[in-house]
Amino acid sequence: MKPSVVAPLTRSFTGKLNPNPGILDLLPTLKLEPRQRYLLVLELLNYDYTGILIISGREFYRQYRLPLSGESRSFGAGPESSRIIPLWTSLNEAIEVQLQFVPTNGKQAPMDYVPFARFDLRAYNSQQLPIQLESLLPYRATISSDKAVYLETSRLYIPSYKAAVDGVEVPVQVSADGYVIIPVNPGTHKVTLEYIAPLTLRISFWLGAASWAAWGVALLLLRSSPFGRDAGEFGRGA
């Protein structure tokens, strides 16, 4: 699920050189209110964004290596990358956060990135999002949609996953990126996803557990037997 970014981005990050000449301080700073969630939406310009983007404030620190800070669709400057960063503070008072950029391509100086990007800081209510994640183990979520969709989960696909929508089993499918996806009809639905291990795997697990338990019992019996005590006395005497 990608939040809507249809509204135009009218604000721009300018910048000034940090006392450390390799760092660009982006302006303006951003204010985060307590108990409020935000989306920092960026529109990157025609730069080579090879470098490190830092967001810092009171008891707050994030660092993103660009152009890619993870997978191809995570936040970054790549062709498929997200341009959205969720922000919030766990403190009970508002804080200001400062964005900084450290270029590492060896070709451009920090001030070459001014203006840095267009942006908007958008407050949102997490309870109104179309996907409400309730549990990871097992995976449980509530999804609301006005049309038929596929819910892409965070689980890499392997056989034996079982999915249900409102308690009714549905076929598990695999996305182009190799993740489990679940078909969901229009409306609001409860989705669950569980891994049901094959019988042979479960038997192997319990056989292994029983073997370790038997080994532990045998060790305890050996230590409590006369032979075990004598061996211990001999070892201490030596």
* Pattern of helices and strands: EEEEEEEEEEEEEEEEEHH
Number of strands: 17
Structural class: alpha+beta
Helix content: 10-25%
Give the amount of beta strand, in percent: 35-45%
Shape: extended
Show unreliable segments: 1-5
Count the domains. 2
What does the main sheet amount to?
9 strands, antiparallel
DSSP summary: helix tally: 2
Distance between the amino and carboxyl termini: 69 Å
Radius of gyration: 27 Å
What's the quaternary structure here?
A: single chain
Layout of secondary structure:
Blueprint (H helix, E strand, L loop, with lengths): L10 E7 L6 E4 L2 E3 L4 E8 L6 E7 L2 E7 L17 E4 L7 E9 L13 E8 L6 E5 L3 E7 L3 E8 L4 E5 L2 E3 L2 E2 L4 E6 L2 E9 L3 H26 L1 H12 L1
Antiparallel strand pairs: 1-2, 1-9, 2-8, 3-8, 4-7, 4-9, 5-6, 5-8, 10-11, 11-17, 12-16, 13-14, 13-17, 15-16
Helix pairs in contact: 1-2
Molecular structure report:
The protein is extended. Residues 1-5 have low confidence and may be disordered. The protein has helices at 199-224, 226-237; strands at 11-17, 24-27, 30-32, 37-44, 51-57, 60-66, 84-87, 95-103, 117-124, 131-135, 139-145, 149-156, 161-165, 168-170, 173-174, 179-184, 187-195. With 238 residues, it is α+β, with helices and mostly antiparallel strands. The protein has 2 helices and 17 strands. The protein is 16% helix and 43% strand. It folds into 2 domains: 11-126; 131-195, Sandwich (Immunoglobulin-like). The protein starts with 10 loop residues before the first strand and ends with a helix. A hairpin with a 2-residue loop joins strand 13 (161-165) and strand 14 (168-170).
